[in-house]
Design brief:
By secondary structure, this protein is mainly alpha-helical. It contains ten helices and four strands; from the N terminus they run αααββααβαβαααα. The N and C termini lie far apart (52 Å).
Amino acid sequence: MTSTYEILNRELSKGTRKPSVAVRDFIDRKKKFFLIKRIFDVSVSLFVSVFVMSWLFPLIAILIRLESSGPVLFIQRRVGMGGKTFRCLKFRTMVVNSEANLKQAQINDRRITRVGNFLRVSNLDEFPQFFNVLMGDMSIVGPRPHMHSDCSKFSSVVSNYKLRNMVKPGITGLAQVKGYRGPTKDFKSIFHRYQFDAFYVRNANFWLDLRIIRKTAFQTFKAIWDRISFPVSVTPHYPRKWVAAFRSFLS
């Protein structure tokens, strides 16, 4: 079976550089971690696929098709481990458009449908990526995968940006639980995301993964609860986007 280092070596050798001694040492030191991480990823993803996606997928598929024509899944070429390209799966949240593979979604983006807005705010649009985890292209925890255009752009402004590609991209990650979600508007947001991604790569371990998963689940449920339970005047820092999206898609 091909080792993690051999995959990374093959992919990086297609470019101008080959992996350094530091990369080799990193992979060698993390062999046990990568094995445990993969077993955990497959186990959780199988559970979600059988007990959640089996009924959630057809339900969301019907809602998407009722509102707009086009495929249920949005399949996009993203940058994976070692710079390898893979097909990232998401529920389609926009009308079919020619800019989907080039332009990030923005706040109040007119391309986003009512159902799509609900899926984005509730993070349900990311659930098909558990299939990417089963296929071996992603992990449950890791740096979020970028479009190729974004990866090239960010690499040109942040030195050593592709360090984040030393591990598999994740459904959630350290940068996300630290609040860096959505569009990257400026250099500051790009740089801080990279800092958290680089910290994860250098310090990756199973217990850190569990903490990120736990915090992701806590933040998701807390955000939904706060936006439903409290009026805007009481909690100005939590605009009721989730409720608005839900009501919009029902109307």
